[in-house]
Amino acid sequence: MADVDVFSALANPVRRKLLESLRAGPRAAGELAGEFELSRPAVSEHLAVLRNARLVREEPRGRHRYYHLEPGPLAAVEEWLQPFERYWRARMRSLHRLLDEEGS
C-alpha cells in the first residue's frame, strides 16, 4: 500500500477514534477491534491506513500486534488549522463582546 497522507487518514471517523484510543498508550489490535461493531479485518485495514500515514506504529509481541500513536505527522494538521483557529477565536471574542453589550 502506498503512503497515505495524514488528511486522508483522518477523514474517516473510525480512524480518528482509533487514534483517540491510542492516546492513553499502546493497545493490542484485538483490544482496539473490540471497540467497534466492525470485523477484525475491517479494523485491521483502518490500522494499515494509519500505519501508512505514519500515525501509528506496529509492535509485534508474540502472537499479538500492539499499536502505538505516532503524533509527529499531526503537526501538519495543526499547521493547516492555525489560521482557522485564529479566525474562530476572533469570532468568539466578537460574540463575547456583543453578549456583554446586550447584557448591560
Characteristic terms for this protein:
WH-like_DNA-bd_sf, alpha+beta, 3-stranded antiparallel β-sheet, 5 helices, 61% helix, 104 residues, single chain, transcription regulation, WH_DNA-bd_sf, Arc Repressor Mutant, subunit A, 2 domains, ArsR-like_HTH
How would you characterize this protein structure?
This protein has 104 residues and is an alpha+beta fold. The chain folds into two domains: 1-71, Arc Repressor Mutant, subunit A (Orthogonal Bundle), CATH 1.10.10.10; 73-104. The protein contains five helices and three strands, in the order H-H-E-H-H-E-E-H. The chain has a three-stranded antiparallel beta sheet with strand order 1-3-2. Strand 2 and strand 3 form a beta hairpin. The mean pLDDT is 90.
Topology:
Blueprint: H1 6-10, H2 13-22, E1 27-28, H3 29-33, H4 40-52, E2 56-61, E3 64-69, H5 74-103
Antiparallel strand pairs: 1-3, 2-3
Q: Specify the overall morphology.
A: elongated
User: What is the number of beta strands?
Assistant: 3
SSE order in H/E notation? Answer: HHEHHEEH
Q: Return residue spans where pLDDT drops below 50 for at least 5 consecutive residues.
A: none
Pfam family, one: HTH_5
InterPro entries: ArsR-like_HTH, HTH_ArsR_DNA-bd_dom, HTH_MetalResp_TranReg, WH-like_DNA-bd_sf, WH_DNA-bd_sf
Keywords: DNA-binding, Transcription, Transcription regulation
Protein name: Transcriptional regulator
